[in-house]
Amino acid sequence: MELAVLKHNGEETGRKISLSDDIFAIEPNDHAIYLDVKQFLANQRQGTHKSKERAEIAGSTKKIKKQKGTGGARAGSIKSPLFRGGGRVFGPRPRNYSFKLNKKVKQLARKSALTYKVQDNSLTVLEDVNFDSIKTKNFVSLLSGLSLADKKTLFVLPEANNNVYLSSRNLPKAQVKTVSDVNTYDLLHADTLVLCEGSVSKLETLLSK
User: Fold this and answer.
1) pTM of the prediction?
2) What is the rounded distance in angstroms from the CA atom of residue 159 to the CA atom of residue 163?
3) What separation in angstroms does the CA of 69 have from each of 62, 63, 77, 79?
4) Mean pLDDT per 10-residue interval, the chain, length 209 residues
5) How far is CA 10 from its chain centroid?
6) Cα 150 to Cα 157: distance, rounded to the nearest angstrom
7) What's the DSSP call for residue 70?
8) How is residue 146 annotated by DSSP?
């Protein structure tokens, strides 16, 4: 499979780049995608939720009324979960939501996501991007040249570039990541995937290990 390499203004450079069928044209595995996205979202959870149980409530432990003769239910403490301000029964406790996922499953998920982008014609290869200064208007003009101003777009750079990253940070629909940081969730969340020319070979090397 070959794709044309585009200039920053959206025109073709006259060069084409070959995409590996082992990465961009596999049989997609939806369950692997589900597991990888589930792990990613689980890892984002802080797990700091906490509610006080009966033993942690500040209050008197004195029996609030006698056992019999009142015509109501028995009550032993003001901290009972039955009363307003009492402890909560089986409330949430701090916990870690992360879980282990095999490396090959994660690789299969990313390959499947890339394959879906190719099948949906949502993959663009762009010549390498480098800005002389940090200016949001530089990134806006880049998006306009590619007709991606109104789309959620993920740019994948071959290596970290602070000028490009900071120039895109104020744009809610644009995201910039390096090859080593890209994940299945980001690939699926974006409407369009833009791979810099130098990112293709690095991505293929990373996913073929």
Assistant:
1) 0.84
2) 12
3) 18, 14, 17, 22
4) 88 90 94 97 95 91 90 90 92 95 95 95 91 92 91 93 93 94 94 93 89
5) 28
6) 21
7) S
8) T
